[in-house]
């Protein structure tokens, strides 16, 4: 039994299987829980090793399927796990904000050398460099809510193997992209929150890099019981709508309310 990472929230893109011939030989089915358990067990084994190795190198290209029955439109879709590729991006970000001594403590030199060698090997194969999964801890980024609307999108309420609630919110990527482009234009023109504007621009570009028949899925994971149904998304939409209507007072009020909600959720991280 692997360590439970209940704080993780994932945003996945599922592309049609027909544009991924490399997965043709894989047995199609609902394999999500099995793959997640394998990935978590691999992470546990690396982190308790001596020296620890927080940079993944396993399960590259392993697909999680969104079957045609789940999608309801006859298309089977896939989302590559890519834990190694996402680890490399995380390591890049860590190197930008950490001193050498701090980095040596968090990610040993041997692990960084090994990761660099594997990354060079991967780059030589002329790879698809897109990242299909984004991960958040404890809460959902307000930028994600600009692309997803629980009041309009498909909501799947399920239970995990332990009987805990798990909520998935799915929307066609074309819908998500249209929402983001509109929200970005409004925020760019009328918001002073530079970091949010820059994140919205980057996020819009990311969405537009995928096949138009893809599905965007927000998996609230182990935070489902905390975040659902009071996700706070309505405050983000209220903020962008108020900006569009030049109602500065309402926009500030909505964003401040979301920020307070976010701060309350951060208490989970300090109590964990």
UniProtKB/TrEMBL annotation:
Superkingdom: Bacteria
Domain DUF8083, residue spans: 7-265
Any one Pfam family match given in the protein's UniProt record, by short name: DUF8083
Listed InterPro entries: DUF8083
Protein name, as recorded: DUF8083 domain-containing protein
Organism: Brevibacterium samyangense
